[in-house]
Amino acid sequence: MATRLSGALYKRVFAEGTSIRSRLAVAWWRSAQEAQPQAGVVVSKRTFHDAVDRNRAKRILREAFRLLAKEGATPENTQWVFIGRGALEGKKCADVMRDMKWIFSKCARS
């Protein structure tokens, strides 16, 4: 099961999707009948100046989503793009997973 969103689908998620702001990330999501839960990650150079910090933020966001998808905690038939925020710096994967679960609960209410 591939949980990573292909590059061509980012624009579609932004164009057709809905956003949810949380403490650690802004999540854009789109419902897609043919899709299994997939996510893409964006981390700005303006927010994380050092490449090491940007890569760590992206790695933590991807890993949190992968673990939640493995648990079955992600909404079915959705595509996601997570944009890392500055509060993500220094957070553990468990913190990001908790934040994503909150995002998924908001998505389910929509």
Q: What are the defining features of this structure?
A:
3 helices, single chain, alpha+beta, Ribosomal Protein S5, domain 2
How would you concisely characterize the structure shown here?
The chain has helices at residues 10-16, 51-71, 93-109; strands at residues 18-21, 25-31, 38-42, 78-84. The protein is of the alpha+beta class and 110 residues long.
Please, could you describe this protein's structure?
- The protein has 110 residues and is an alpha+beta fold.
- It has a single domain (7-104), classed as Ribosomal Protein S5, domain 2.
- The chain has helices at residues 10-16, 51-71, 93-109; strands spanning 18-21, 25-31, 38-42, 78-84.
- Strands 1-2-4-3 form a four-stranded mixed beta sheet, with helices on both faces.
- Strand 3 (38-42), helix 2 (51-71) and strand 4 form a beta-alpha-beta unit.
- Helix 2 packs across helix 3.
- The longest helix is centred in the middle third of the chain and has 21 residues, at 51-71.
- The protein starts with 9 loop residues before the first helix and ends with a helix.
The H/E string reads HEEEHEH
* Portion in beta strands: 15-25%
Fold-level CATH name:
Ribosomal Protein S5, domain 2
Number of DSSP strands?
A: 4
Structural class of the secondary elements?
alpha+beta
Mean pLDDT: 93
Main CATH class: Alpha Beta
Biggest beta sheet attributes: 4 strands, mixed
Domains, number: 1
SS field, number of helical segments:
3
What gross morphology would you assign? globular
